[in-house]
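Incident log entry.

Two folding requests arrived from the same account within the same minute. Monitoring flagged them as a possible duplicate submission, but the sequences differ. Recording both here for audit purposes.

Request one:
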Amino acid sequence: MHVVPKETSKFLLRFGGENPFGKPNWRVIVSADRLVREAGVYRDWADGLSTTERGGLNFTPSKDVPGMNFQRYDNKPIRVVTEIREVQKYPDIEGWLLEKWWPASQYGTRDEWYSYKAADGITPMLGAYPEDGDYEFLFGPWPKIPPVSELQTFISAYSAQIANKRGTPESRAREYMLRFEYLRLQAEEKRKTEYNAWFRDELSPMKSGSLEASRWRQELAKRVGRRSHVGIE
């Protein structure tokens, strides 16, 4: 197992936060160290046999004509068994990876998870259901562990992408705030328009000295919470 520098682990926990189980939402790991328990058909061979000797072809020079003769090795596995074993999650990737934690809901229901069977039709293909969620590869690989500044760039870019992605709680919250602000501004503009129209149409009674205008001013004063009439300069 490769050791992650303490400053990198502290940064990921501080910057990326932690999941409900007290573990970081983001982590760096070497691909060869990332193991999962999955089912498969496994062949156990005698010690010392090369990959080619495990059922591969044996090539030998031809004595009579140019070219090569070949025949398949007749070595047989000690046993063939279908079971759950710990295997590399990313056998086709080499280097340091940046993984993100996902909750169990990301992997569907337990029934869906266990509906996938190995070749025997019995053993769960995917192993145990990830009750506490699991980590998935998002960025990399790198030949050496990236500096925290580079990790911060990738995490920030991903977070911004998710925040702007439609159909997520984050995007709904953004839409809610934008919609609320838009409606507030629209209502404010509508009130201004109504006030302008109201004062334009009703301004003459404010300046009039008639008894009716005096009553109108007193009524307006009550509406705006004043005890005396409204004056116009």
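Request two (distinct sequence, not a duplicate):
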Amino acid sequence: MAFRFAKPASCAECGSDPVHHGAVYTTILIDGLMRPFFASGTAFSNVFSGMVGKLENAVIPALLDFCGRRGWGSYLDEPDDETLLLAKVLWEEARTRGIRMREFRLFHLPRNLFVAELPGGKRISFEGIPLPASDGRRVWWLDDKAVMKRKFRKLGFPIAKGGAAFGRAAALRLFHSITPPAIVKPHAGSASRHTTLHISDETELLRAFGVSKQVAPFAVVEEELVGPVFRATLVDGVLVASLRRDQPHVIGDGRCTITELVAQANEHPARGGPYFSTMKLDDAALKELSWQDSTPDSVPEKDQRVTLHQKVNWSLGGTTTDVTDAVHPDNRRLFEDIAKALRAPIVGIDFIIGDIARSWKEQKRCGVIECNSMPFFDNHHLPFEGEPRNVAGKIWEMTLADC
């Protein structure tokens, strides 16, 4: 009989993509304890990363085959409804290059594990994104927001003021050292899960701290930066795509109420699915409106932006706009300098700034909020507005060149 794990329970703080809190916490804890021992730049780490790469490509595909024969999992030759969109765009680009890509479902649950057979017969395994051998040189702290902040501060990269706290007292000290409003988030992982914005007092701070600690040992407490969230994705050290990630929002016309503006915005054909959703005036929206001194009956001024949720998730009504061609040269240079410092072949940089077309040096309260070694680059393939960018194609080109 095939063994199956239960799916995670729904969670308001996780949003539309809930996770097992205990499993995520344990994974982050173990990663945090082990990564410093395998920090790049040492002879040991270079040998170790080389061994891991060879093990993955020589042993893991055969191990997954064995698990399949024992009934502990199964292969999918085509993506299904549970396959991540990121994997689907990789799959599509793999076909165009003669690559056979399959997903392995360990214990018959989606775990983002894949095996790809390249032209010539070589098989590689990967979790989420195929990575070249140079990934072994990536700094160990790339996905750790707390360590990243300390490193970036020394390197002169713009970041929000704040730090990481393990206990409530430390969290309160950090809160009183910065200028509210503040944001609290897990120091690793997240993808907007268990993240709280607009924190202005100690009561809100301690609640947000507890929410964050459900999925990670440390919580980052920092100033809330000003402007939209932009995602810059770099492949092989080069900026290949940039998106503005917008919270659910409407733009005032000086005549219509927020309720009327939401109804008009929801008529956009892309909000009919399968990726983008309609906006809702639910409890979360009412709370966000209250923070802006508004109600559903308020009439925003012309061009006034009114947000309806703290998070940028598509399922909540968030949208994306491609801005790759608008990125200011100083900002492009900053993103590529960051990728160089991280020594990462693939990285997603989340950056808050008022205007991506102006230099970051000219704008206040802007900066990097996090970096991701496994970025959800599928957003670039399906922007709500603007030109799609084929990031998956760039990744496969780098992978094939490395093999």
